[in-house]
Amino acid sequence: MQESIDPDLALFAHVVAAGSIAAAARRIGLSSPMVSRRLSRLEARLGVTLVRRTTRRLELTVQGEDFYREVRAILAAIEQAEARLTGAARLPAGPLKISAPTSFGRLHVAPGLKPFLDRHPKVSVALELSDAYVDLLTDRIDLAVRITAALPPGVDAERLATSRRVLCAAPSYIQEHGAPATIGELRGHSLLAAGGQLPWRLSRNGQEVVVNGESVVRTNSSEVVRELAVAGVGIALRSLWDVSQELAAGRLVRILPGVEGSLDVGIYAVRPRSPFTPPAVEAFVAHLRTTLGPTPPWEG
Question: Which residues neighbour 277 within 8 Å (Cβ) at sequence distance 6 or greater?
């Protein structure tokens, strides 16, 4: 398939997908020096540096990212054309690298991997969990779960669900400090949020109210915020997918039940923009669609 075009372009795509020259060499059956020479030959012919070679991995330059996006689209289009011509079944197969936020991935992606792999045994999944921003091209991510109100350009995305967020606290906190009766009274309480999650944009009867403040504990972990709330440290604005079990068990109770976080925040399946979507990616998006919809399990 990929040999239908300039073999050095196909080799470049192999190197980026593999993450290193050595890994690409093993995958395509060439020596590492040969792969390195051909990559250098391609860069010399184009007159640009496509990758920066480091001791551990390859890092795409800006020009390399743009070029990889275009080469990947060309290779995908060729594969799609050959599949149409030969009538070959597009069965999900091969490596599938998925990225998801840490807590969401642990609670709602990882538990569904077994049934997905049972249905698609030829797919090899790599699941990476991180609360940091992940660049799809640089980190060679095939599919990312993003929880956001705004998507970046250059991606294809499907909204899987709305991420409803509610104010909550432990019964012990309410017993000690009381519960705020209005949004304004939140400013007199201990607030909990991970870095970058304040100010809160709250919605009540269609009106948005901004609540400023500082978290009583500074942390970069949303999971820590949830545990601090359960421990009675303060009031948190948490997604229902994150705290529905604690609410059902009474370990947390809702504060100001008529108030929620902005409903603009959605849960998306995001992939690099391409005219061709690999069957494994299509299959996992369908799997997420079934798992999270039409009514997400945490809404029950």
Answer: 76, 156, 271
Most confident listed range (71-75, 146-150, 291-295)? 146-150
Residue 78 scores a pLDDT above 80: no
DSSP 108: I
Q: How far apart are CA 22 and CA 60, in angstroms?
A: 16
Q: Could you read off the pLDDT of 14-53 as tens digits, one per residue?
A: 888 777 788 778 877 888 888 888 999 998 888 889 888 7
Whether the CB-CB separation of 172 and 183 falls below 8 Å is answered with: no
The dihedrals phi and psi of 270, each to the nearest 5 degrees, come to -120, 135
Query: What sections of the chain are H helices per DSSP?
Result: 7-18, 21-28, 32-46, 62-86, 102-104, 113-119, 171-177, 222-230, 240-249, 279-292
Residue 205: which CATH number? 3.40.190.290
Any idea which residue has 């597009």 for tokens?
A: 90
Look-up of token digits 């992940």: 134
* Domain interval for residue 255: 165-261
Do 150 and 269 sit in the same domain of this protein? yes
**75/209 same-domain check:** no
**141 shares its domain with 186:** no
Q: Which of 115-119, 162-166, 211-215, 270-274 has the lowest mean pLDDT?
A: 270-274
pLDDT at 3 over 50: no
Which CATH number do you get for residue 70?
1.10.10.10
Are 295 and 174 in a shared domain?
no
Longest pairwise C-alpha distance within the chain:
72
Q: Which of 86, 114, 138 is the last residue of a domain?
A: 86
Q: What's residue 57's pLDDT?
A: 67
Helix (H) or strand (E) holding 97: strand 94-100
Q: Which tokens hold the place of 268?
A: 């998306």
